[in-house]
């Protein structure tokens, strides 16, 4: 198992009366791609700034390789940051932008040239050395910003929503490029985003945050398939979240009907949240379904149809590859392993 390179211990941060981080602790492993994911205002960018040294926490420790760096200024930390606004120098060409940090370190010219050539190959910009920044596309500017950060050989690269300014097609291309670069150079990436698909696509580990508190930490598959609570289930992908009652181990009631499930160790007759993903609901003949419903709307989404189906005072969202006419009556089947039971959500306010 990889060793921890960064540890945040009991970090608290407030701006005036607003608490942005609430006793936050996490470990970041060496060479992993870790993503901080959550809605605006959840504390993910503040966490990144505290790691970088651009913000100080009110209390708690920032540890780097088991040494407390909480009091170190940013330039003394073995981390570099790439922001959404790339902060490139418009009066400098590509070579000069990437070389900026190396010149400050007074590295010999031949070493600078060699390092920049390596970086330009890594970010697929070989031959762009003399190009002006204004002549580059958004994706190319982002690559220059990444090269400028990586040429200093940081042990950790922090990325604060670096793809936010790109169009959808380029954004998806750069997701793959960033992951490829991270694997090639083998350093730790800490990536901030509010885009769930981006997090699922790129990350080794995802930390889902809300109101300054970590809601869940795990691999993308675990976060998606086994959400810790209704907030995570609702934020990561689409979900049907219903009020339910845990009758007994392996038996739950929702929509006024009992279902078998795979969960246990809840109190008998405990009020719980039931989470069912739209793709996990099977459409069958109306007379054969566990539930019967009426199709209220159908929308084509490219690879599937998204349907709203009303059943027993709840409107389900379904994803299915087959088209069903609006107003049709259909049956719904839900397998036990596709019914996720979780404790009632507790607001962090």
UniProtKB/TrEMBL annotation:
Residues of the ABC transporter domain: 6-236
Q: Which reaction does it catalyse?
A: ATP + H2O + polyamine-[polyamine-binding protein]Side 1 = ADP + phosphate + polyamineSide 2 + [polyamine-binding protein]Side 1
- PROSITE patterns tied to this protein: ABC_TRANSPORTER_1, ABC_TRANSPORTER_2
Q: Could you say which residues form the signal peptide?
A: none
> What InterPro entries would the database entry show?
AAA+_ATPase, ABC_SmlMolc_Importer, ABC_transporter-like_ATP-bd, ABC_transporter-like_CS, Mo/tungstate-bd_C_term_dom, NA-bd_OB-fold, P-loop_NTPase, PotA-like
Name any GO cellular component annotation: ATP-binding cassette (ABC) transporter complex
> Which Pfam families does the UniProt entry name for this protein?
ABC_tran, TOBE_2
Domain of life, per UniProt, equals Bacteria
The EC category is translocase
Q: Cite the entry's keywords alphabetically.
A: ATP-binding, Cell membrane, Membrane, Nucleotide-binding, Translocase, Transport
One of the record's GO molecular function terms: ABC-type putrescine transporter activity
EC code(s) of this entry: 7.6.2.11
Q: Which family does it belong to?
A: Belongs to the ABC transporter superfamily. Spermidine/putrescine importer (TC 3.A.1.11.1) family.
**Subunit-structure text:** The complex is composed of two ATP-binding proteins (PotA), two transmembrane proteins (PotB and PotC) and a solute-binding protein (PotD).
What is the documented function of this protein?
Answer: Part of the ABC transporter complex PotABCD involved in spermidine/putrescine import. Responsible for energy coupling to the transport system.
Record protein name field: Spermidine/putrescine import ATP-binding protein PotA
Protein source organism: Clostridium uliginosum
């Amino acid at each position: 198992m990889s060793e921890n390179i960064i540890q945040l211990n009991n970090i608290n941060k407030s701006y005036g009366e607003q608490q942005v981080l609430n006793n936050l602790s996490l470990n970041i492993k060496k060479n992993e791609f870790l993503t901080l994911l959550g809605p605006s205002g959840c504390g993910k960018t503040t966490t990144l700034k505290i790691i970088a040294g651009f913000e100080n926490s009110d209390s708690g420790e920032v540890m780097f390789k088991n040494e407390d760096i909480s009091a170190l200024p940013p330039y003394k930390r073995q981390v570099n940051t790439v922001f959404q606004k790339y902060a490139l120098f418009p009066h400098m060409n590509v070579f000069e932008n990437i070389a900026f940090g190396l010149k400050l370190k007074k590295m010999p010219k031949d070493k600078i040239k060699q390092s920049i050539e390596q970086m330009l190959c890594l970010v697929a910009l070989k031959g762009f050395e003399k190009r002006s920044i204004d002549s580059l596309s958004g994706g190319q500017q982002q690559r220059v910003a990444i090269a400028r950060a990586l040429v200093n050989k940081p042990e950790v690269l922090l990325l604060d929503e670096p793809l936010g300014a790109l169009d959808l097609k380029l954004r998806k291309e750069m997701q793959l490029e960033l992951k490829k670069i991270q694997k090639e150079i083998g350093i730790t990436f800490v990536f901030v985003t509010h885009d769930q698909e981006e997090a699922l696509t790129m990350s080794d580990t995802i930390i889902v945050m809300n109101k300054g508190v970590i809601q869940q930490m795990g691999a993308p598959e675990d976060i998606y398939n086994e959400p810790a609570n209704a907030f995570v289930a609702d934020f990561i992908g689409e979900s049907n979240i219903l009020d339910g009652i845990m009758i007994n181990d392996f038996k739950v009631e929702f929509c006024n009907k009992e279902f078998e499930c795979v969960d246990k160790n809840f109190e008998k007759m405990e009020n719980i949240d039931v989470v069912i993903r739209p793709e996990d609901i099977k459409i069958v003949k109306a007379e054969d379904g566990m539930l019967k419903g009426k199709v209220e709307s159908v929308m084509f989404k490219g690879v599937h149809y998204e349907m709203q189906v009303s059943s027993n005072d709840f409107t389900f969202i379904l994803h299915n590859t087959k088209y069903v006419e609006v107003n049709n009556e259909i049956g719904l089947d839900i397998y036990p392993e596709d019914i996720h039971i979780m404790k009632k959500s507790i607001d962090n306010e």
